[in-house]
């Protein structure tokens, strides 16, 4: 086996003892900020650089009035909050131990306070002093050329190597006009900015120690353009997130078609968040389409109805598509007659019904969240707090999935009737429908309906994953932040998926229980990818057989089957499992012809932090998870994780972060109960 050694790519080192002593001769009370490093094997939490600083200073360390280590100091969004929350009133200056980007960031944030660079950036390659710069992990405007001798402590935190078009280190050239560079009039004169900032800090510029060098390098315009493009797309809309390949082209234009009914339906008793439903039928009973076959148990639960007519042949355990454990299911043999339960009757005047009557219908018809969470809708709509806004989620940001898109295109009238029903229940006047801009047809159609309704607004959102997460969508559209461990109702909002609203319409107006749903079937190697109206309880084997014409016995050797999208979907291990209310899609992916890279040690690259929409630090979940310290993950707010999979998707060390996160969240929940 090939042995792999990890190179330490830490991008800075403490300045020499002489330089540090020289800096401390100028200060009286200094607060130290130090970056916890990136691109270095993550073995333990320590304050190595700060401890070295204290060792160098000796008695002079008494001038330090406080210190704080910050993960990925250059992360503008997260680190800004942490730095501004610090009490720096007892200090007259700030010392920074980081690469040049971290120093620039702090200096810009604390513009009127002297900021001293206590470290030099380390060149990590032959072209380390390029005009683009490679240091730091954040996509911000600050850059660092890794020149090996940081002058930011002399220049007020503005880098002349990077920000001056001429790269001048020995002061201004005298050619600036109206504050702009004579070489590039689109660029501000860096040296004028340096003098202005030093003036604010009541400091003078001293350039005695500047070493003149030749930094001439070939143009990297293309790389610079791509970097700007990446920065723009990553920062749009909300913090974090990704732009995975959408892969929706195979199904986005395909109309919803009914999938053939199953010969045998496998209807699980657990189709919702909360307690499992209790069977109301037994072996040998005959049932009709829409007949209630299991009743809700407890407050958070939902009844279940038969999706076909026929005979109950057993109640037995099958592999559940979510838990991947054996759970009870009602097995019904289809008689092909399609007899409808007599109690299913349309209601043409729902507006005459009371709020309580509408809630009862939604509960009795088994309506749950169809975005994947499967939370009983009647519970969500019966909020103990005042709701002022209804948000309809039409983002469908997962790759491959396009069922919600087709519902919006093909059933806009029904969606707006569903919205009116929910408005009546919640007594809200303001409704927003959030749709990502990769669904222009849906936006156009729903906007035409919204024009007739003054209280409904369609909001086009820049496409970005995971924009459909409730908390993210609320913040993106309304600017409201759901508190930690809180719910949307805590900020006066209810969020419903468009599929759920459509199901509410069918339940109230058509009298139809939730016995079918739209499922996107897509992926690789299929003959019939599409959006299908599928009966709840349809075995996966039936769908795969329909999509491929036939199913090979060794299907799982060649393909991976995921219920849901590729990001948050659940990998399946049995074709005998079946569609449940939360099945948004079935995605078939070819298994890689080569073995995946083995999991490596975390190197603190910071990518997981950059993409986490919940502003968390996922690297600690792997760090403590590998050591079995589940309780420590709670300190890093693991309960706030929405399990979107962004961190695992981008992890350069291929660490199964979600496995650790799920275990740590389960531990946290059990600790609360205990």
From TrEMBL:
Keyword Electron transport annotated: yes
Topology of this chain in the membrane: Peripheral membrane protein
Enzyme Commission number(s) of this protein: 7.-.-.-
GO biological process: electron transport chain
Listed cofactors: [4Fe-4S] cluster
Cofactor binding, per record: Binds 2 [4Fe-4S] clusters per subunit.
Domain 4Fe-4S ferredoxin-type: 592-622, 632-663
PROSITE patterns: 4FE4S_FER_1, 4FE4S_FER_2
One Pfam family of this chain: Fer4_7
Residues engaged in binding [4Fe-4S] cluster 2: 612, 641, 644, 647
Main location: membrane
Class of the enzyme per the UniProt entry, highest EC level: translocase
Keyword Iron in annotation: yes
Cellular compartment(s): Cell membrane
Alphabetized UniProt keyword annotations: 4Fe-4S, Cell membrane, Electron transport, Iron, Iron-sulfur, Membrane, Metal-binding, Repeat, Translocase, Transport
GO cellular component: plasma membrane
Subunit structure, as described in the record: The complex is composed of six subunits: RnfA, RnfB, RnfC, RnfD, RnfE and RnfG.
Membership in a protein family: Belongs to the 4Fe4S bacterial-type ferredoxin family. RnfC subfamily.
NCBIfam families linked to this entry: PRK05035.1, rnfC
Record-given protein name: Ion-translocating oxidoreductase complex subunit C
Species annotation: Aerophobetes bacterium
Lineage: Bacteria, Candidatus Aerophobota
Gene: rnfC
């Amino acid at each position: 086996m090939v042995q792999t050694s990890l190179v330490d790519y830490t991008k800075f080192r403490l300045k020499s003892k002489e330089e540090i002593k020289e800096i401390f001769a100028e200060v009286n009370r200094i607060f130290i900020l130090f970056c916890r490093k990136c691109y270095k094997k993550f073995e333990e939490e320590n304050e190595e650089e700060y401890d070295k600083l204290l060792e160098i200073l000796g008695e002079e360390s008494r001038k330090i009035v406080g210190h704080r280590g910050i993960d990925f100091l250059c992360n503008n969004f997260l680190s800004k909050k942490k730095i501004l929350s610090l009490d720096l009133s007892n200090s007259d200056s700030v010392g920074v131990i980081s690469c040049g980007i971290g120093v620039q960031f702090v200096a810009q944030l604390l513009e009127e306070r002297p900021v001293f660079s206590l470290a030099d950036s380390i060149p990590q390659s032959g072209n380390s002093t390029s005009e683009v710069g490679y240091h730091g992990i954040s996509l911000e405007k600050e850059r660092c050329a890794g020149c090996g001798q940081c002058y930011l402590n002399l220049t007020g935190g503005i880098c002349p190597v990077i920000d001056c078009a001429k790269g001048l280190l020995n002061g201004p050239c005298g050619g600036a006009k109206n504050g702009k560079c004579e070489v590039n009039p689109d660029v501000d004169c860096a040296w004028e900015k340096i003098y202005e900032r030093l003036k604010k800090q009541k400091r003078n510029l001293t350039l005695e120690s500047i070493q003149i060098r030749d930094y001439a390098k070939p143009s990297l315009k293309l790389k610079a353009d791509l970097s700007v493009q990446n920065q723009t797309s990553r920062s749009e809309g909300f913090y974090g997130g990704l732009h995975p390949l959408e892969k929706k082209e195979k199904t986005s234009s395909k109309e919803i078609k009914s999938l053939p009914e199953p010969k045998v339906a496998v209807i699980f008793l657990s189709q919702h968040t909360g307690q499992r439903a209790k069977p109301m039928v037994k072996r040998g009973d005959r049932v009709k389409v829409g007949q209630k076959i299991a009743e809700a148990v407890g407050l958070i639960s939902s009844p279940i109805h038969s999706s076909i007519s026929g005979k109950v042949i057993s109640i037995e355990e099958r592999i559940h598509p979510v838990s991947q454990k054996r759970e009870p299911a009602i097995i019904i043999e289809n008689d092909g007659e399609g007899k409808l339960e007599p109690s299913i009757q349309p209601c043409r005047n729902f507006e005459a019904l009371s709020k309580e009557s509408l809630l009862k219908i939604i509960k009795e018809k088994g309506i749950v969240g169809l975005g994947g969470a499967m939370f009983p809708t009647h519970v969500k709509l019966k909020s103990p707090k005042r709701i002022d806004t209804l948000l309809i989620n039409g983002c469908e940001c997962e790759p491959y999935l396009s069922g919600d898109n087709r519902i919006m295109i093909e059933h806009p009238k029904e969606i707006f009737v569903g919205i009116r029903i929910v408005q009546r229940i919640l007594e809200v006047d303001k409704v927003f429908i959030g749709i990502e801009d990769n669904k222009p047809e849906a936006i156009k159609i729903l906007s035409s309906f919204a024009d007739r309704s003054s209280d409904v607004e369609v909001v086009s959102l820049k496409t970005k994953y995971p924009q459909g997460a409730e908390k993210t969508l609320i913040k993106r559209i309304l600017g409201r932040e759901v508190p930690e461990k809180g719910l949307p109702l805590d900020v006066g909002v209810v969020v419903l998926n468009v599929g759920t609203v459509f199901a509410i319409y069918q339940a109230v107006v058509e009298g139809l229980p939730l016995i079918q749903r739209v499922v996107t079937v897509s992926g690789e190697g299929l003959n019939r990818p599409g959006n299908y109206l599928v009966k709840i309880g349809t075995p996966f084997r039936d769908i795969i057989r329909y999509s491929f014409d036939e199913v090979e016995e060794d299907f799982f050797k060649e393909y991976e089957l995921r219920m849901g999208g590729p990001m948050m979907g659940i990998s399946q291990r049995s074709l005998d499992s079946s569609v449940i209310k939360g099945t948004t899609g079935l995605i078939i992916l070819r298994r890689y012809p080569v073995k995946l890279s083995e999991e490596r040690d975390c190197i603190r690259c910071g990518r997981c932090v950059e993409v986490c929409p919940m502003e968390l630090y996922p690297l600690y979940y792997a760090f403590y998870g590998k050591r079995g310290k589940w309780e420590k993950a709670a300190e890093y707010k693991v309960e706030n994780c929405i399990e979107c999979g962004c961190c695992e998707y981008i992890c350069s060390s291929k660490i199964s972060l979600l496995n650790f996160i799920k275990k740590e969240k389960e531990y946290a929940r059990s600790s609360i109960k205990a």
